[in-house]
Specification:
Blueprint lengths: L1 E3 L2 E3 L9 H13 L5 E5 L5 E7 L9 E7 L10 H10 L3 E5 L3 E9 L2 E9 L10 E9 L6 E2 L2
Parallel strand pairs: 3-5
Antiparallel strand pairs: 1-2, 4-5, 4-6, 7-8, 8-9, 9-10
Length: 149
C-alpha cells in the first residue's frame, strides 16, 4: 500500500487486494518452517525484489519468504516518483523499478537462486540493448532477498 493524504491506499491487483489469502499463505510457510521460499509474480509492469513477512510492514514479524516480480516486455509502468513513494512506504521492498522494460533471468542451483533484471529504457527501438538493472539472490535455507554480486 501507499500512504496518501486520505490514509493508506491499497493496490487491489496485488498482495494488498488479498490480505487474508496472503496471511494464510505466508503463515503456512512459517508454520512449516520452510526457509527459502520464493514467490514469483508479474503483470504489474515493475521489477521487484522484496522480503515477505506474515504481517507486512511489521518489523517484529519475521521475514518468511522472498518475492521476485518481473516487469513487462513492452507496456509502460508507473512513474519513478510513484515507485519511490511505494518503496518508501514499504521498507521490505528492496528493489522496485518500472521505468524500463525487459525480463528476469532466474538461475536456480542447490545453494542459491539468483535473479537478474535485464532491461532497456527503449524496447521498441531496433538498436535497444539490455543491461543489468539489478541482481538479487536467495541463499539456501535463508528467507529473504539480498543483493547479488
Amino acid at each position: 500500500g501507499v500512504q496518501t493524504p486520505l490514509g493508506r491506499s491499497a493496490f487491489t491487483d496485488g498482495w494488498d487486494g488479498y490480505p487474508q489469502a496472503r496471511a494464510r499463505l505466508l503463515q503456512t510457510v512459517a508454520n512449516a518452517r520452510l526457509s527459502d521460499v520464493v514467490l514469483l509474480g508479474g503483470d504489474v509492469h515493475t521489477n521487484v525484489a522484496a522480503q515477505l513477512r506474515v504481517q507486512p510492514g511489521d518489523e517484529r514479524s519475521p521475514v518468511v519468504a522472498s518475492e521476485l516480480v518481473t516487469t513487462s516486455v513492452s507496456t509502460r509502468g508507473l512513474s519513478p516518483k510513484v515507485m519511490a513513494q511505494i518503496q518508501r512506504d514499504n521498507p521490505d521492498i528492496r528493489h522496485a523499478r518500472s521505468d524500463e522494460r525487459g525480463y528476469t533471468l532466474i538461475d536456480i542451483r542447490p545453494e542459491r537462486l539468483e535473479a537478474q533484471f535485464l532491461t532497456t529504457p527503449h524496447p521498441a527501438r531496433p538498436d535497444a540493448r539490455l543491461t543489468l538493472q539489478g541482481r538479487w539472490t536467495v541463499q539456501q535455507g535463508v528467507a529473504g532477498v539480498v543483493p547479488g554480486s
